[in-house]
Amino acid sequence: MSLLNRPYFLSEPAAIAYLEGVLWPEGPTCPHCGNADSAKIGTLKGASTRPGLKKCYACRKQFTVKVGTVYESSHIPLHKWLQATFLMCASKKGMSAHQLHRILEVTYKTAWFMAHRIREAMAEHKLPPMGGEGKPVEADETYVGGKERNKHRSKRDPKNIGGVGKAMVFSLVERGGRVRSRHMPSVNTSNLRQILTAQLKSGTAVMTDDAGQYRHVGRDFSHQSVNHGIGEYVRGDAHTNTIEGYFSILKRGVTGTYHHVSQQHLKRYLAEFDFRYNERAGLGVNDSDRADKALAGIVGKRLTYRDSSTAVG
Ligand SMILES: [Zn+2]
Fold this sequence. Notes:
Elements: H1 7-10, H2 12-23, E1 41-43, E2 54-56, E3 62-63, H3 78-90, H4 97-104, H5 108-122, E4 137-144, E5 167-174, E6 179-184, H6 189-199, E7 205-209, E8 222-226, E9 234-235, E10 238-239, H7 241-257, H8 263-278, H9 287-296
Parallel strand pairs: 4-7, 7-8
Antiparallel strand pairs: 1-2, 2-3, 4-5, 5-6, 9-10
The structure holds zinc ion (ZN).
């Protein structure tokens, strides 16, 4: 028996029922009026009725579990969405739209659209501060993007050496805990201070390398740094090995799987890599649990309460 033989990957009614179980563990909620009284919600049946079609007797409107989610008004069958979500959650370095296009037998354009919707589902907004007493946080930045030397000579830009032409990613990782990353044009003393004071609990020990922008971290936090310039990588508790491990997964994913990530979409790729790291096997999350967490994230990424009764997923 393979994981991919699960009925919800193969049939539409099973896929709908599965998603209902994930999103409505206590029973359905009407996305139009918020009614959650199961006595006032009926399931419509009949040969020509779409699977999972509900009717709310409080507001008289119809809905399915897809209303108000990233799957709403998609022509792609839900079981293919569940396959795509599972594949992206189970692949440590990500799954390109080309791979999804071949595996799911949908067009490349559709696969690309699906992958970005799933990344949106993985995105976590309004995150609470990290760190605190006894929970050191490593801070570092890296560059991602296509390497000039890998491009055809005619496409190389001599200006694109080092970080030029690439996108800077700044990340914070709590040791043994979570990561959060963002795309930044540059990191300097002042925007770094803003980020750290907003994202970290007071009393957090911050670990960095000796780059200039980290020189004043000690004003707000207990700060230790290692001097990579003289070959120093670990000194007692001071190191940035955790965040460098994360960056290596991110870079292998971006250059190996996605080849090129436009700066416009980088935010979504970062959400994807952060999500998989935060729901990693090392924290006891298996592939199925991780996919369920991504499914739970599809809600509320689109307007939930709709005026139009015609918008039935
Ligand atoms: Zn209703």
